[in-house]
Amino acid sequence: MTSDPTSLAADVAELPKAEFAFPGPLRDRLVAAVLDGSKTATTGLVAEYEREGEPLPAVGGRSVLVDSEDRPSRLEVTGVRVVPPAGVDTAHAVDEGEGYAGVAEWRAGHERFWGSAEMRAALGDADFAVDDTTPVVLERFRVVADLRGAGWASAPLA
Fold it and tell me: Cβ neighbours of residue 135 under 8 Å, at least 6 residues apart?
């Protein structure tokens, strides 16, 4: 891949878009943690992928992580597991880079987010709740390129 802005835009447009949380302060904190190396894992709901009609991530897959202003960085998936919440281990909780000391804190934080009105609206399910059988996607990744300072045109990604 090249650093030419025109070629870069074409490369980025071909990759799926990765969005952590909703636009705003939380998303920007998560993207900053990815870029400083403290966040190397994330967790999503299988229900979210199903609702969007998107395939689950696959090892070796690449995506474009965006901040609240749609400024991109490229990620590569290094690991994927689908488990119930009880299958989350301490290493994954810590590697999410959000300051969780263990699985109990991780679960409480994620249940708050997944049970929020905004997430329930995104899922189209006003009664959605995580329980011990809810499948979650544990994803590990690495940053391939931080494109925000690469002469990137700030036009939003589609």
Answer: 45, 46, 47, 82, 83, 84
